[in-house]
Amino acid sequence: MRTQVAIIGAGPSGLLLGQLLHKAGIDNIIIERQSGEYVLGRIRAGILEQVTVDLLEEAGVAARLHAEGTIHHSIELIFRQQRHAIDVHGLTGGKVVTAYGQTEMTHDLMDARQAAGLPTVYEAANVSIHDYDSARPRVRYEKDGQHHEVECDFIAGCDGFHGVCRASVPKGAITEFEKVYPFGWLGVLADVPPVSPHAIIYGNTERGFSLCSMRSLTRSRYYVQCPLDDKVEQWSDERFWDELRRRLDPETAQRVITGPSIEKSIAPLRSFVAEPMRFGRLFLAGDAAHIVPPTGAKGLNLAASDVKYLSQALIDYFAEKSDAGIDAYSARCLARVWKAERFSWWLTTLMHRFPDTEGFGQRVQEAELDYLVNSRAASTALAENYVGLPL
Ligand code: FAS
Ligand code: PHB
C-alpha cells in the first residue's frame, strides 16, 4: 500500500493529525497496536487549553465539546486549610480552560475518521519503521497473521512514551532528558456531581497533594498523591474518599459528594523530553516525544500543539513543496514543550510532598503559595501558563 503520511498510534495525537491532514486533502493511514475499545478505555486528561479547543474546531470535531464541555474561569489553591481563587479569566484578558475528557475527544476523532472512511488499522502487531532517513520511508506491521508494508512520504510517530518510533532512532541521534518524581497519582472517576463545577481545585497539605476536577456536571475526577509502590487494591473507595476529604479545606471537604468509583488507577509522574523531534522523514509528536507530570494539565495540550505545527508543516510541504515547515518543526515544538515542562515541574514541586519536604520545605511551599495568591504579578504568571501560552 502507498500513502502520503503513515501515522503510528491512534491516541489523541495520531487521530487529530489524521483528521487535519484529511481535511487538507493529504492521504494518511493510522496504524495502532491496540483495539479502539482499549484506546477509549484509558482514562487520562480532562482539561483543554483554548489552543486545543480551536484545533478541534479546525478539525471539525468540536460539536460535542461545545455541547458537553464545561468552561472554567478560575482555579483554586488550598493550603493551610484555606482555599484561594485565582481568577484565570480576569488575569489573562478573558482566556479560559475547558473541562472535557480525553476519552470523549478521542471518541469524537474516531467517529469522524470512521465517518470519512479513512484507513485505520487497529490491533496491528510488530509495527516497525524503515528508511525514514531516505525519501521512501516504509512501515511494516502484521494483522490477522498477514504481513503488510506501507510505502509513504513521511512517518508521524504518535505512538506515545512506550512506542516504537522513538525507540527506533539510533541512540547517538537523540538526546533524552528525564526527571522521575518519587510519588504517583491515584485517580478516581465517579458519576457524582463535582464538588466545584466552576473551578479546578489543587490542594497542598501536610498529608500530600489533592486535585478536584470533573468530566461533566454529573461526572467527577479526583486525585490524591500516593506512594509510588502503592497498589490500587490497597485503596478502597471508602479509604479514597476519606483521604481526599482530609486533603481539602473543611468547607470543601464537607461538600464532597461520594459514590462508587467507575475507574481507579495509579499513574507515575515524570518529566521527559527527547531532542530533536524530527529524524529525516520521521516526526515525533505528543507523548512519543515528551511527558509532563499531569499537575499543570499540559500533556494532552502539548500533543495538540505539536500536531498543529506538524500538520501545517506537512500541508505546506505538499501544497508548496516547501521544506520550511518540516525543517522548523522540531525547534518550534521544543520551544513550547520546554516552557510547559518548566511550568508542570514548578507546579508539581510547589504542590506535592517530597521526601525532604518536612518542616522547612512545607513552610517554604506555604510561603510561596501565600505570595502567589496575594501578588497580582505572581497570579498572572500562573494564570497565563495555565490557560496555555500562545502558539
Ligand atoms: P498516547 O499514549 O495517548 O497514544 C499513543 C498510542 O500509540 C496509543 O494508543 C498506543 O496504543 C499506540 N502505540 C504504542 N506503541 C505502538 C506501536 N508500537 N505501534 C502502534 N501503536 C502503538 N495529560 C493531561 O493533560 N492531564 C492528565 O490528567 C493526564 N493524565 C494522564 C494519566 C496517565 C496514566 C497517562 C499515561 C497520561 C496522562 N496524561 C494527562 C497525558 C496524556 O493525556 C497524554 O498527553 C496523551 O495521551 C498524549 O496523547 P498521544 O501523544 O496520542 O499518546
Ligand atoms: C483532570 O481532570 O484529569 C485533570 C485536571 C487538572 C489537572 C490534571 C488532570 O492539572
Topology record:
Blueprint: E1 5-8, H1 12-23, E2 28-31, H2 36-41, E3 47-48, H3 50-58, H4 63-68, E4 70-72, E5 74-79, E6 82-86, H5 88-91, E7 97-99, H6 102-115, E8 120-121, E9 125-130, E10 138-143, E11 146-151, E12 154-157, E13 175-190, E14 199-205, E15 208-216, E16 219-226, H7 237-246, H8 250-255, E17 261-275, E18 278-279, E19 282-284, E20 290-291, H9 299-320, H10 324-351, H11 360-374, H12 376-386
Parallel strand pairs: 1-2, 1-12, 2-8, 5-14, 12-19
Antiparallel strand pairs: 3-7, 4-7, 5-6, 9-10, 10-11, 13-16, 13-17, 14-15, 15-16, 17-20, 18-19
Helix pairs in contact: 1-6, 1-9, 9-10, 11-12
The structure holds arabino-flavin-adenine dinucleotide and P-hydroxybenzoic acid.
Tell me what you see in this structure:
- α1 (12-23) packs parallel to α6 and α9 packs antiparallel against α10.
- This protein has a domain at 5-50 and 100-178 and 270-347: FAD/NAD(P)-binding domain (3-Layer(bba) Sandwich), CATH 3.50.50.
- The protein is built from twelve helices and 20 strands.
- By secondary structure, the chain is an alpha+beta fold.
- The strands form four sheets. An eight-stranded mixed sheet has the order 6-5-14-15-16-13-17-20, sandwiched between helices. A six-stranded mixed sheet has the order 8-2-1-12-19-18. Strands 3-7-4 form a three-stranded antiparallel sheet.
- The mean pLDDT is 97.
- The two termini are 35 Å apart.
